[in-house]
Design a protein that fits this description.
Chain lengths: 203, 203
């Protein structure tokens, strides 16, 4: 049995989809959370200076999407063939674009530039993605792809708290199909157990 | 035989990795390039309002990375197992982070904000990625993963012209292993043929 150690800041954000998948797989892992002030010392030891990093038997894996796709193959949350995998990847990458748009606002260090981004983001980009993801889920039996649960759904739900803080709203409040998807993922017993026991953090 | 139609602006940018892969596969495709002024009319017909879109027998596929990973499986440019696929995905996602950093400068519409980004980008971020990608390629027999050609290499090389314009420099000029990788990919006969016949554009 390989040993897993997940290295990240003391937040959910981009590590949470990995924590959700490891929980779903009922795979024990060390949830190593370092404090912000340790980052300068840790950063040079991380591949390309980034986290989350998942150490599998000491071997460092990075990039949350790559790690999630890999874990998904071990627990049947990938597609049954290349076409289904493609649909999952399309849904994930589209969510990633949405996250990038919201992040571009949230992490903008230039006060005036940031201010100018809020109106198009809140009035156009966010409602556009909400409506189109709702439609996508409606057309896929309540999931983001292939009419069944996949790692794209897990990634989406695990990132929602983080996304909601950045977007300053509950993004699924008015999209009943997406809201139901969130509730369904959070009700999976292994994930429910993880959410109950995880350390509390806003993002 | 399915028919392929690729829909994009009249540039290389994010469509070029798909064009490279279709060429590598010796797959005929319609290279549909629309003009900027047609975009408002085309945008509502594209999934999530974005391009490139690859139509396969009329079915719209979007998201360049998802499409490339799918095509790669058809021509052996994926990994031989889940672990190799993971290494390819890690390399691709890391390159994508690099692209996001350069794009964040290039597409910044706020003059002062953009100006402030140039020094950290050119003095820290770009040299950091160059050095680490060079190291990665050195450790992988001249490729980005697994000691052999994969779709991550194709994506990287196909995006280089676009990246170089955004970064205002030849990004592989001083990284001999990456430069050799670029030259090797561009020397693959099917890709060479495509590059010779493709419409000219800066990015």
């Amino acid at each position: 049995m390989p040993t897993y150690k997940l290295i990240y800041f003391p937040v959910k954000a981009l590590a949470e989809p990995i924590r959700f998948l490891l929980s779903y797989m009922e795979q024990d892992f060390e949830d190593y959370r370092f404090e912000r002030e340790q980052w300068p010392e840790i950063k040079p030891k991380m591949p390309f200076g980034k986290v989350p990093v998942l150490e599998v038997d000491g071997k460092q894996l990075h990039q949350s999407a790559a790690i999630c796709r890999y874990l998904a193959k071990q627990c049947g949350l990938n597609g049954k063939d290349a076409w289904e995998d493609l649909q999952i990847d399309i849904a994930f990458e589209t969510f990633n674009d949405f996250r990038a748009a919201v992040s571009s606002y949230h992490y903008d260090h230039h006060e005036e530039s940031k201010k100018l981004k809020w109106e198009p983001l809140s009035k156009e980009t966010i409602p556009y993605y909400q409506a189109n993801f709702e439609e996508l889920a409606k057309n896929n039996g309540g999931y983001l792809a292939n009419g069944k649960l996949s790692w794209a759904d897990i990634y989406f739900v695990a990132c929602l708290d983080y996304m909601n803080v950045m977007a300053k709203q509950d993004l699924v409040e008015n999209t009943p199909t997406l809201k139901k998807l969130r509730d369904e993922v959070l009700a999976i017993p292994t994930i429910k157990k993880w959410v109950e026991k995880r350390p509390q953090s806003e993002v």
